[in-house]
Amino acid sequence: MTAAFKVVAVQVATISLLAMSLLPSRGPARPNGEHDFDFEIGSWKTHISRLRRPLSGDTTWLEYEGTSVVKPVWSGRANSVELEVDGPGGRHIQGLSLRLYNPRSRQWSLNFVNAAVGTMSVPTVGEFKNGRGEFFDWEEYDGRMILVRNVWKDITPTSCRFEQSYSDDGGRTWELNWVATDTRIRDEPSPPANTGSHDFDFEIGSWKVENSRLLNPLTDSARWIHFEGTSVARKVWNGRAVLLELASNPPSGHSEGLILRTYDPLAHQWNVTFASSRGGVLSPPAIGGFRKGRGEFYNLERLDDGRTVLARSVLSAITHTSYRLVSAYSADGGKTWQDTWRSVHTRVSD
User: What is the pTM of this model?
Assistant: First the structure.
């Protein structure tokens, strides 16, 4: 969750380093935090108080009422949060958070997207200690770069409290600007009618996948490896996003991944991000859309040799029971392309 739901373009690496520097020192023996957010699984009534203009001397607070629904995904290694609240002046806010656990650093990265924009925010990074979760990032607010701290506290089986604070003096002082008090409710809220894009509806369900990957792309190598896998796709966020859970068995050993696809209603494009179970951090998004039954998505990727190249993923030959995915790299700005990944998906009976 970010202030005023702004999406800022800040390098992920810088934020991660900053967040880690703000966290308390830790000894060598640290517990596995993969289940830190289990307390929040379920449906909640939420009351939100938001400071109208942080860091300005303003003392006016705005009140919102709504619900949040937290679900485990990716075999429990991640969870999604669907937020829907109403505030002053008929303002209606819908947001989706995806929280990923990094087993190496034993930290969480929290990623947020607002339905009005559809673009994932920079991650907020942190962890739980003694029943209290603290998470930090570095954001632009009112033209300035500031520190942001998110805190979960007062956690019980039926209630919890979330606080967001800003600091414009490097963390010496903090101003509270957002408070969410959540109370558990028994039943799932009835979702509103889905008004998002249906481009990926064909993919909902379970699939068998035949994968081929080029070793050492953009070299003279022509060696491909072939291996099988599976993918399971389902709608989240009342149909405005799609989550894919991937598993495969390449020669290097069992691998699992998670793909989140969110739709930007303003740009009429999809943002596609990926996380590996080994890292637990979302990649920068690949962006694109569908035309005449063919989906094309582009981003920049960094190769093992340090080069940054243009990357393209294409979904084609789409039917109810099969489709094809081909990924390629270009080292000359898109003039020529070399296929690096090919996969054929065949639907499995649900």
Answer: 0.64
